[in-house]
Amino acid sequence: MIHSATFWDKAAAKYANDPIKDMASYTYTLERTRSYLRDSDTVLEIGCGTGSTALLLAESVGTYHGTDISGEMIKIARSKVAETSLPNLSFEAHPALDGIHEHDGLDAVMAFNLLHLLENIPSTLNAIHAALRPGGLLITKTPCLADSNWKIKLLLKLIPLGQLLGKAPFVQSFTVAEYDRMIEAAGFEIVESGNHPVSPPARYIVARKI
Ligand SMILES: C[S@@+](CC[C@H](N)C(=O)[O-])C[C@H]1O[C@@H](n2cnc3c(N)ncnc32)[C@H](O)[C@@H]1O
Fold first, then answer.
1. Which pTM does this prediction carry?
2. CB contact at 8 A, 172 and 118
3. Helix or strand or coil: residue 86?
4. Cβ(68) to ligand 1 under 6 A?
5. pLDDT tens digit string along 175-209?
6. CATH of the structural domain 4-209, one choice from 3.10.20.30, 3.40.50.150, 3.40.630.30, 3.40.710.10
7. Half-sphere exposure for 126 (CA within 13 Å, toward CB)
8. How far is the CA of 183 from the centre of ligand 1 (A)?
């Protein structure tokens, strides 16, 4: 199977230019996320891609650091931030877990459209939990592909072939209920959740470290 960094490096330029598929859902969850952030917060976004969301949220916090396994994604993110006046925003190329382990006492950790791409979600959630201050927030949006319609489920069956050909990344499939349970099992209390969009469900969760 193609290595994640290689797959996402190749995808970076196209990813940067692709329009957001459901702008209403994106705007809604961005606003909900903003409502939890304070201007003194130190936050980490893992799997930040080309930094589009980071650029929109950085003004709402004190320090915003984005990491991503793909050096090409981070190159694009850095070029975008160079065109802004956001001195509190920085990016670094890291696998998700390395990116978390370097931090502690964080006010929030965010991961958008990332967790289903990781091989070990429970250990990532445990590492996020350890990096947060008591009461700190995990804010995520994750496609729960096991709850999608038959067409998407059919496409999912082609993923192993796509992976063999280097055309698909590693992807995990789980239901909304299974996803919620993973987050609670890592020591979080879910304070807000919803599916935005509803189908296939992209599960938006704000969870507080207990
Ligand atoms: C679907 S994109 C989402 C990007 C961005 N968060 C967004 O919502 O637009 C997934 C991102 O996760 C990154 N990624 C995949 N596996 C990763 C890993 N193990 N550690 C860190 N980042 C990873 C990819 O490089 C890619 O930028």
1. 0.96
2. yes
3. coil
4. yes
5. 999 999 999 999 999 999 999 999 999 999 999 99
6. 3.40.50.150
7. 5
8. 19
